[in-house]
Each structure stands twice: as structure tokens, then as C-alpha cells.
Amino acid sequence: MDFINIHTHKKPLVKNVFSIENMYPNSADFSMPFSIGIHPWFINKKNIDKELLIIEKQLPHKNCYAVGECGLDKITETNFELQKTVFIKQVLLSEKYKKPLIIHCVKSYQEIMQLKKTLKPSQIWILHGFHKNLQVAQSLLKNDVILSFGAAIINNKKLQEVITEIPINNILLETDNAKIEIKKIYQKVANLKNIEVLELQQKIKENFTKIFKI
Ligand SMILES: [Zn+2]
């Protein structure tokens, strides 16, 4: 069975991995499953409209699984209000093309939850690279946000506690840009959940199928 990796910036190098590669508006190779969005780090005011059009053009592509990563980041220099505007535009694209949204979030959890309450999207929101505490995890889950865990799970004790506590049906796994095989993340999570890797693979596949309506 495949290891599903829902967010990576690299082409998979090993077999038995299904991954969704993150693309940007200036990417050119759409031959593999991908998501596409404007990352808050790379917002350039004069290119926004043009980039949104490129994204919109790629969204119906058969290899396109999601909009994103897009989101809010309080550490990056991009003006926060502008980030919000660009994020909302991508939420609307996710709704229009009925594709889930992959979210990058740094110190903006309240804002993401507030926007979800206001915009009431019908598409699923996936918060990628989740690395906060149990309380934040629970409030996101309460707002029907899916949490995706990456390499931080290997050593981050607080995050390990989160995985142990939350139900398995609202999570996904990813490598993002870490130099790690997705298999290692599955092994760690299976170990924390006290289940076999194969059982975890089945559960993540069920989650994936449900979320991406495949
Ligand atoms: Zn990423």
C-alpha cells in the first residue's frame, strides 16, 4: 500500500509513495499530482491578479488535488492585511473548483479559525505542518480543520502528545520540505498510536479518500 504524502516540495524518489507536490504560479511541470497556490512569503502585490489567473487555469487539471499552500504568516514581512486578501481569494477558488485548501499558518491560528467561521467554506481546510499544542489542535479540530503532521513529529514531545490524544480520522501526513522519507513519519505516528504501520496507512488512505473525494 502507498504512503500518502499530502504536501511536499520534492518529487518522490522512492516507490510506494503517492505525493501531492506543491506548485507555485511560476511552476511549469504539472505531470504529477500537485496543489497550487500563492504562498504568503511570496506575495508580490503587482503579480497577484496574474498569479490568481494562472492558478485558476490549473485548478481543473486532472492532476490538481488542492489549492495551496496559501495562508497567513505573522513572521514574514508581507503586509498582514494583504496576506488576508490573497488568502480569501484562494479560499474562493477552492470553493469554485471544489478542491480542498492546504494552509500555511504561522502565529495566525485565531485568524484562520475566524475566517473559517465567517466564510463558511464547504471545502475542507487542511492545516499543513501542524506543530502547536493540544489546545490549539483541539480548537482547530472543533472547527473541522484537518491537521497534517510532518517531520517535527519525530522529536517534538509536545507534538507527540497531540498525536496521541487526537482521533486518527482527522489527520494527514506530509514531508513538506524536510529531508526525510514519508515512511519514517508513518512509523513514528504508528508507534505513538500503538498500531501497525499498515493499519495507519489504511486509516490515512480512508482520510485521504474522504477529504479529496476520490
Ligand atoms: Zn510547504
Structural class: alpha/beta
Portion of residues in beta strands equals 15-25%
- Quote the distance from N terminus to C terminus: 16 Å
On the 0 to 100 scale, the average pLDDT is 96
Query: How many structural domains in the coordinates?
Result: 1
Helical amount:
25-40%
CATH class: Alpha Beta
Do you know the CATH architecture? Alpha-Beta Barrel
The CATH superfamily name is Metal-dependent hydrolases
Work out the number of β strands: 8
**Broad shape:** globular
Strand order of the largest sheet: 1-2-3-4-5-6-7-8
Sheet of most strands = 8 strands, parallel
Number of helices: 7
Q: What is the name of the CATH topology?
A: TIM Barrel
Helix-strand topology string: EEEHEHEHEHEHEHH
Rg (CA only): 16 Å
Low-confidence stretches: none
Bound molecule types: zinc ion
SSE map:
Blueprint: E1 3-8, E2 17-23, E3 34-36, H1 48-58, E4 64-73, H2 80-96, E5 101-106, H3 109-119, E6 125-127, H4 134-142, E7 145-149, H5 157-165, E8 171-173, H6 182-193, H7 197-212
Parallel strand pairs: 1-2, 2-3, 3-4, 4-5, 5-6, 6-7, 7-8
Helix pairs in contact: 6-7
The protein binds zinc ion (ZN).
Which key terms come to mind for this protein?
single chain; 214 residues; alpha/beta; eight-stranded parallel sheet; 40% helix; binds zinc ion
Characterization of this structure:
The protein is an alpha/beta fold. The chain has a single domain, classed as Alpha-Beta Barrel (TIM Barrel). It is built from seven helices and eight strands. It has an eight-stranded parallel beta sheet. α5 links the parallel β7 and β8. The radius of gyration is 16 Å and the shape is globular. It starts with a strand and ends with a helix. The model has no long low-confidence stretch (mean pLDDT 96). Bound molecules: zinc ion (ZN). Zinc ion binds next to loops.
